[in-house]
Amino acid sequence: MKKQTVLNFLMIAMIAVLGFSLTSCNGDRYEPIPVKVSDVNGNYKARLVTSQNGKFNEKLIDFTAKDTIITFKDFPLREIVKTIVTDPVKADTALAHIGKVEYKLNYKSKLNTDQNVVELTFEPKTLEIQIPVDGTTKNAMVKLVAKQKGFFVGYDWSIRFGLEAEKITIDGVDFAPYQTIKYDIPISVKN
Fold first, then answer.
1. A Pfam family name for this chain (predicted)?
2. Which element (helix H / strand E) includes 12?
3. The domain containing residue 69 runs over which residues?
4. pLDDT digits (tens, 9 = 90+) for 53-98
5. Contact at 8 Å (CB) between 94 and 85?
6. Is the dihedral of CA 101, 90, 182, 56 positive or negative?
């Protein structure tokens, strides 16, 4: 009988505690921390989705944002090189010889307090790559464009943006036929 009374008492106490804990949440509201333009600065780990001609590739990359420049210490070149050098073995050899290529992406920032974001307007520069193939070096000029703004989002403190390799010129001649390569960063995490 004592065990039954103790169990009933514990059940009633547990239900009461649970009820009080749930009612205390009713008044809680999410209050976003207002972003500043300087919040964009930092090191990021990002998910990069590269697409070309219906084929998609995903990988993790790192980049740094400081003042008005996003710096990629190792810009993803695989799709560019494999577009120019169609033989997979020669393309992999060329990628190994090229190594890491640093790319700096300029941007202008504008605070949007209504949506708690920093809008990023990009000013991409042409990417220059020297691709060694069959004992010669091809000078590739890749015209990068940003067709949409990027955003530093105050909700999760991430940067989201995209670029396109719109055109490739090899030794002064437009590479054709060519399918645009898209680089999308749907989410990044600030380190």
1. DUF4840
2. helix 2-23
3. 37-190
4. 999 999 999 999 999 999 999 999 999 999 999 999 999 999 999 9
5. yes
6. negative
Q: Cα separations (Å) of 190 from 43, 117, 134, 160? A: 6, 15, 41, 12
* Residue type at position 152: F
pTM: 0.81
Q: Rounded distance, CA 29 to CA 57, Å?
A: 39
Residue 148 within a domain? yes
CA-wise closest residue to 34 among 113, 130, 121, 151: 113
Under 8 Å between Cβ of 162 and 146: yes
Q: Is residue 14 part of a domain?
A: no
CB 60 within 8 A of CB 49: no
Instruction: Kindly give, in sequence order, each residue whose CB lies less than 8 Å from that of residue 163, ignoring residues fewer than 6 positions away.
Output: 105, 122, 124, 144, 145, 146, 182, 183
**Residue pLDDT, tens place only, 111-124:** 999 999 999 999 99
Domain count, the chain: 1
